[in-house]
Specification:
With about 130 residues, the chain is an alpha+beta fold. The protein is built from two helices and nine strands. The strands form two sheets. Strands 1, 2, 3, 4 and 5 form a five-stranded mixed beta sheet that branches. A four-stranded mixed beta sheet has the order 6-9-8-7, with helices on one face. The radius of gyration is 15 Å and the shape is globular.
């Protein structure tokens, strides 16, 4: 058994798609749009791994950012090396995204950083 995809709602669907394409090499499928409901989505593919579905719909409810709460915590991307973790963290910071932690060696043996992506989604970058 494997995870087929993870889904994430977004207010600005295009900005979230562009973020993952630009910084994480996602390949976006065609935009799906349902005229009756206003629902719209993209499937993003990252290499041969799990896909991310980003979705939007009219009157989407938003919540204030809370770094620790029940439910979705973060998504993690393995980028292959410590150098790439460092480079991507700098690139995201320079593009205006908040670095929440790192890059650093964690107590459980990972080298990682955590950034706050579009719409306050936490993204972990590991080697």
């Amino acid at each position: 058994m494997e995870i087929a995809h993870i889904a994430l709602y977004a207010v600005d669907l295009e900005a979230v798609k562009d973020f993952f394409v630009r910084f994480f090499g996602a390949q976006a499928g065609a935009r799906y749009y349902n005229k009756q409901t206003g629902f719209s989505s993209y499937f993003l593919r990252f290499g041969t791994g799990t896909r991310l579905e980003i979705m939007t719909r009219p009157s989407l409810e938003t919540h204030p950012f809370q770094p620790v709460c029940c439910g979705y915590a973060h998504m993690a991307f393995s980028v292959g090396s410590r150098q790439r973790v460092d480079e991507l963290t700098v690139a995201l910071h320079q593009a205006g995204y908040q670095v929440l932690s790192g890059p650093r060696q964690t107590g459980d043996g990972y080298y990682e950083s955590c950034v706050l992506g579009p719409e306050n989604n936490q993204i972990e970058i590991t080697e």
